[in-house]
Amino acid sequence: MHIVVPLAGPDFERADGRVKAEAEVDGAPLLRQTLDTRAWLRSDRASQCNLTFILRDSPVSRRFGEGPLNAWYPKARRVFLSGETQGAALSALAGVALTRSTSEPLCIDLADIQYVSTFEPRRLFADRPDVGAAALTFSSNKPAYSYLRTDETGDVVEAAEKRVISQNASAGTYFFASSTVYLSALAHNLANVDRVAYNGLFYVCPLFNGVLASGLRVVLERAENVRDIKFDAGGPI
């Protein structure tokens, strides 16, 4: 499974010359507090070879990418973008382009929420060809998150950014059956900007609308012990 971690957002770099991923939480950097607890990464350290980080090509992010990030994940790939994109869904394309197989599952992990999960995405997609995507969710009603709405049978029917359309808040980790599914969903969203973009930006969660439009199903998996450590310091890190 190819794992892409977008770290190129406008709020990633801080005024003090550090980046959000370096902010300490319980004595460890935020990025390591989240990413190192992911079961699909922790169970197979070789999967670092399938890990790609997306950063901006700026002095601050270059220092972080070539220093701490390279030391933490030496086998991972790092891609530096020369400018800002129109959202994480587009930034992630730089990582999707490096996939070794267009049929392997794809994970887009924003890596800023800590949780516990035993979900096995590779098994899901192998066993369920009707499923195109999956999301880890928890219960919330705060508009800071993205949400997924289900019908009376439990099937996902809509995804929205910063709009509380259900109690199923996204934990910020998204799985797609393949990069082909991801690209098809992105193309759908680009053609429906008014309906799916938020403040003119393309976020990852609304891509599930494109997956649904293609006739594939989207399933939800519960994340346990959710801790949004971006706010542990009493405000956004």
Automatic annotation (TrEMBL):
It comes from the Bacteria. InterPro entries: Nucleotide-diphossugar_trans (IPR029044). This is Uncharacterized protein. It comes from Methylosinus sporium.
